[in-house]
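[Discussion] Sanity-checking designs against the backbone

I'm trying to build intuition for which residues belong where. Below is a structure token string of 768 positions. I'd appreciate it if someone posts a full sequence so I can compare it with mine line by line.
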């Protein structure tokens, strides 16, 4: 059966369209199971009815004509119950529904299994037999369930392809086809899709020898030179939009093209007698395999960079100049794997949105998109990329969702959001220099999370009171080796000077999990539960000591440095870290630097730390909750995985209860506690955190004006009552709705970003 299944999936994958795929399914399944009938009924989203789309054994004229209501007949029962139904005598079942146009009165045995994809019932796969004595056995039922599960993704992909082309299952015009992924960069973009394909396919390059090694070397060197010039041209074009730290991402590409890097290995292969294209293929695929085998999001993104470079080199080897695309005035760039170099190909001012099937919020593209302010959605699964070329698209970077062929109503809805967002930002500028204080005079510090220098510029313009989280791993990630003490010192000084005398909290190197360094790979089965954060730097004190020394020297004359330790899970890690920090402090003082001992704090982002707050607070000056990781660990959900991202919810009762406990325990021993993460930047979340007693909220710069506006307009007493109300609820979605309703009633409905339900409601209203 396994070989039959493999063959069936391959055939269906190669089908030209959905109808051909369904015809293949019913024909092959009927033959494999030796049944008289095999049929597929698909649920039409527009009408919510099951339509007979393909059959082998029933009358063919019934295809497309017979339909059942959502819960009608045995087919509707299978879909409603979302499990197989196996009957010896189907006509005797009370839910049996007879359609004379199908000719199915001859068949008595019935086995139906649901076709489900990402919790959505797509349809029902049915087999029938004439003899009432035959009951399909467990093995046959298991086979049909397996077939259904394997084909669900293919059917979803084909269905989406047809819908994007503008047709529903019934052949009627379709609009507002939506796909969900992971938010890469916030904002809403409306534009025209431009699909970027790989410039060349390394996989189809044949293996063959060469007689003229010198000529092959010359051809390859010319292609390397051409690609270097392409990348330098792109970097130059983006220079006015990016700071040096962001432009350093292009330096990563250029370093990969150095003689002592990938080109050197290709040249060695050519000298062994392999033609240039074959040598390039071997080396690139070796690199790709090496990176893709690593269970780490950031390292896997490097495989994308290697593949992109390989394709560009191959393209120059094969054709010389690359084909130039035509970019409309409002371009939404779409690709299986977007790369930084692709962004620079779009003429300045014309790139409004990005859509990438692969990748996560930690990829180079996402980093650049946030720096450039381009709304982005990453990690879309089962999306027919080639169908999006030239299509009108809406990119919702807040929710991680895109809409193809939007209706006039949906377009108008999102256009209003864009205009409101622009107007809102302009209106909030007057709050820049005003304190973040409630109407009953409760003061909260609003800080920002930074990593790139563009974050600092934006933060200062929005009135941030300091940096609550400076991600020191960013300078490490844009280099191909550990930055020296002097290089680190320059990075840190820039941040400290920009905010002096306000505090700047620098998190010590936090790599591992979804953040890794190409030159310091970490191979683990489960990187999120492995060697990361403080565990890495305590195992490598030479890294930790150099970093702390650079921080302390950078703070001379400013004395606004605070040091924060990530991923703390036990007291001994804090004590060992403090010992090293004090050691460096005295050494730097002995070298003649006039510095003050900075405040040292810990990040609370592992559940174990939640239950050790008092013990941790006894040893440090402050605590700061990393709400993103804490939520991820409490709920056992990888928020960068689109298959489970919907389970990640900052308003989960367990998360809120943990946050309340942390604030209470920290204050019980007289230590300040802050929070950095998405919840702090959400207006409703900020109100709850303020009510819990958090002393400071650190967020992305773009969120700061809205949070300040809300806090300045309500009393702490009002927020505390709201907190008490939601802590009695047991559903994250109900809690979120309750908070949103409170904000709307208080006059802040305009601050709430569009949820998927809101957009879909508009979409459904347009269809109906």
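Best answer:
Here's mine. Compare freely.
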């Amino acid at each position: 059966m396994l070989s039959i299944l493999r063959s069936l999936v391959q055939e269906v994958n190669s089908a030209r369209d959905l109808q051909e795929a369904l015809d293949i399914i019913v024909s092959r399944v009927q033959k494999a199971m030796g049944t008289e009938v095999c049929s597929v009924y698909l649920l039409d989203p527009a009408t919510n009815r099951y339509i007979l789309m393909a059959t082998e054994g029933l009358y063919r004229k019934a295809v497309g004509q017979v339909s059942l209501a959502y819960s009608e007949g045995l087919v509707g029962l299978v879909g409603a119950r979302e499990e197989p139904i196996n009957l010896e005598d189907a006509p005797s079942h009370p839910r049996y529904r007879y359609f004379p146009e199908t000719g199915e009165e001859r068949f008595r045995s019935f086995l139906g299994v649901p076709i489900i994809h990402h919790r959505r019932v797509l349809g029902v796969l049915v087999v029938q037999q004439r003899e009432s004595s035959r009951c399909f056995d467990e093995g046959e039922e298991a086979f049909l369930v397996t077939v259904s599960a394997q084909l669900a993704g293919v059917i979803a992909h084909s269905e989406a392809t047809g819908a994007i082309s503008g047709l529903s299952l019934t052949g009627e015009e379709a609009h507002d086809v939506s796909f969900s992924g992971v938010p890469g960069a916030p904002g809403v973009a409306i534009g025209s899709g431009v699909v970027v394909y790989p410039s060349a396919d390394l996989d189809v390059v044949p293996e063959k020898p060469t007689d003229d090694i010198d000529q092959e070397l010359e051809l390859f060197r010319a292609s390397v030179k051409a690609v270097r010039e392409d990348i330098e041209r792109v970097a130059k074009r983006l220079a006015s939009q990016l700071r040096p730290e962001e432009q350093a991402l292009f330096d990563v590409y250029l370093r990969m093209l150095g003689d002592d890097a990938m080109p050197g290995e290709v040249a060695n292969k050519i000298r062994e007698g392999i033609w240039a294209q074959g040598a390039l293929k071997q080396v690139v695929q070796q690199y790709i395999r090496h990176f893709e085998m690593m269970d780490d999001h950031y390292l896997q993104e490097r495989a994308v960079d290697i593949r992109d470079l390989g394709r560009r080199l191959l393209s120059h080897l094969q054709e010389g100049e690359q084909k130039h695309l035509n970019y409309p005035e409002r371009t939404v760039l779409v690709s299986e794997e977007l790369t930084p170099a692709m962004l620079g190909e779009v003429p300045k001012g014309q790139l409004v949105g990005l859509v990438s099937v692969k990748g996560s919020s930690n990829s180079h593209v996402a980093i650049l998109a946030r720096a450039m302010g381009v709304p982005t959605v990453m990690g879309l699964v089962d999306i027919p990329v080639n169908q999006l070329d030239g299509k009108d698209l809406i990119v919702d970077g807040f929710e991680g969702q895109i809409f193809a062929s939007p209706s006039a109503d949906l377009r108008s809805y999102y256009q209003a959001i864009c205009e409101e967002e622009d107007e809102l930002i302009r209106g909030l500028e007057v709050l820049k220099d005003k304190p973040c204080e409630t109407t009953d005079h409760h003061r909260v510090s609003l800080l920002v999370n930074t990593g790139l220098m563009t974050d600092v510029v934006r933060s200062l313009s929005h009135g941030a009171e300091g940096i609550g989280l400076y991600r020191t791993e960013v300078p490490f990630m844009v280099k191909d080796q550990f930055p020296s003490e002097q290089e680190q010192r320059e990075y840190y000084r820039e941040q400290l000077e920009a905010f002096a005398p306000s505090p700047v909290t620098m998190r010590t190197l936090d790599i591992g999990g979804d953040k890794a360094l190409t030159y310091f790979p970490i191979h683990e089965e489960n990187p999120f539960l492995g060697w990361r954060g403080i565990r890495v730097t305590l195992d490598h004190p030479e890294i930790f000591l150099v970093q702390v020394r650079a921080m302390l020297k950078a703070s001379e004359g400013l004395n606004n440095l605070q040091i924060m330790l990530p991923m703390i899970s036990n007291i001994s890690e804090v004590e060992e870290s403090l010992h090293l920090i004090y050691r460096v402090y005295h050494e730097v003082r002995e070298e003649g630097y006039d510095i003050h001992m900075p405040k040292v704090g810990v990040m609370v982002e592992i559940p174990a730390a939640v239950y050790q707050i008092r013990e941790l607070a006894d040893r440090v000056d402050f605590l700061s909750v990393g709400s993103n990781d804490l939520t991820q660990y409490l709920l056992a959900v990888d928020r960068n995985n689109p298959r489970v991202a919907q389970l990640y919810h900052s308003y989960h009762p367990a998360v809120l209860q943990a946050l309340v406990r942390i604030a209470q325990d920290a204050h019980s021993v007289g230590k300040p506690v802050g929070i950095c993460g998405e919840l702090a930047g959400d207006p409703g979340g900020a109100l709850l955190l303020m009510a819990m007693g958090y002393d400071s909220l650190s967020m992305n710069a773009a969120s700061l004006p809205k949070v300040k506006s809300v806090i300045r307009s309500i009393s702490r007493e009002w927020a505390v009552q709201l907190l008490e109300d939601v802590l009695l609820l047991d559903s994250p979605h109900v809690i979120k709705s309750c908070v949103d309703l409170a904000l709307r009633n208080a006059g802040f409905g305009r601050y709430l970003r569009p949820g998927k339900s809101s957009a879909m409601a508009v979409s459904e209203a347009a269809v109906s």
